[in-house]
Amino acid sequence: MLPNSDVAPARASVDRVDRPWFGQTLSILVVEDDVAVAELVRTLLNREPGWGATVVHDAAAAAEVFKHVNVELLVLDVNLPGISGVELLDVLRRDPHWREPPVILMSAAPEQAAIQVTLARKGAIRCLAKPFDVDELVAAVREAAACCVRSAPARSA
């Protein structure tokens, strides 16, 4: 999926791959390099009935999760180490399994308006400015779930 030069060494930054979504309606992958923000997002999303969120901290770890888990929604930081969130989104959109599934982006960049336009062209549902309001995050995920929760086809193991 990602070119070899973009893949981290064997120690991918997956703190743990939670799989709370078995039997639930929405599996969410959060790709965020700031551990505190990642844990906050995971906690907020896992509080919602029927949602299960897993966190990874870089694109290489996200690629590993995509190989094994049917992710239905991606919450993606724009500024990741190595390959950026925008570059990861470009790679994903070239994959037939990820042309349609919803993506919500998060960015602390001051040029938020320009990022919003660029990401809308790439198919992101929303770009949240950090720090974001908790209700704004939950509303964005609800919007994504309502429009296309089941658009990601199941991957073979």
Automatic annotation (TrEMBL):
Pfam families: Response_reg. Gene3D superfamilies: 3.40.50.2300. One of its GO terms (biological process) is phosphorelay signal transduction system. The modification 4-aspartylphosphate is found at residue 77. Residues 27-145 form the Response regulatory domain. This is Response regulatory domain-containing protein. InterPro entries: Bact_response_regulator, CheY-like_superfamily, Sig_transdc_resp-reg_receiver. Transmembrane segments: none annotated. The lineage of its organism: Bacteria, Bacillati, Chloroflexota, environmental samples. Keywords: Phosphoprotein.
